[in-house]
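Appendix B. One record, verbatim.
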Amino acid sequence: MLKTNEKQLVEIGVQGRVAPPLFYGPYEVDHRGKAESLPSLGGITYNVKVGDLVCGWKGDHVEPGVSAVVDPSKRGDKQNQAFNYLACAGNPAIVVSGGAKGAKGTVIGHHGGVEHVIIDFKDRDLARMTQDDKILIRGFGQGLEFVDFPSVHAFSLSPAVAKKWGLKADAKKRTIDVPVTATVPPEAMGSGLGAQPAATGDYDIMTSDPDVVAKHGIDQIRFGDFVAVLDHDNRYGRALRRGAVTIGIVIHSDSVLAGHGPGVTTLLTSADATLRPVIKKTANLGRMLKLGRYATTKRQ
């Protein structure tokens, strides 16, 4: 098991509420010049879940499960930024008000621009939730380090997920094997490039080139998948750097807009070849934690 600084990390409760859906209509022009009007961000999404394919939906930037924010009218303020920053993939969440009070969920990641935190809940709990409900998250993970691999930077990753992921260290080669479902070429990354810091938000895999999509299996990526972005360094912002590797989790659906596509929240990055992506088709947070389509309990 990789040695970490878990005992030094700070655990902080952060509270938000269900984010109301946003409408970008009446039309948006897609990358082919076609006017589209589609469901998009926010709200309680009942039928799009961790484990589903991110491509093929009649929607744009759709977020699975529940989207949460502190104040939808002040998305850029410090409180909402803290909510977005402190909520790490795998952190537990609980509804603390309303008819679904007591319902337990799990953070998947966060979506930049709208500053949403994406949370998985069971169907029976989604059915009881409203947009007035408040959600408390036990934020734990920011500041995580792999003690013997200082060149690896971790963001938005709970120690519990790091332990279960199947990361394997090679002491001789000074590398870490990281299970991922797909590798993404550097030229395929679009919206979110250059954004700082990588500990909040996400950036998008562009899907406007069908040949690139087919070659790299991007249309087979699922919500909750761990994917590797090659030649990208996310240590101090999202940037191109040959030889670097960034590993993230997929948190929103495909998009028809130019420069956009499935969203990836950064979890690990190194400017060198320390991180070695290893293809494993089951490398998904939902499979790991029994969420979404992979839940073992009967879903209502």
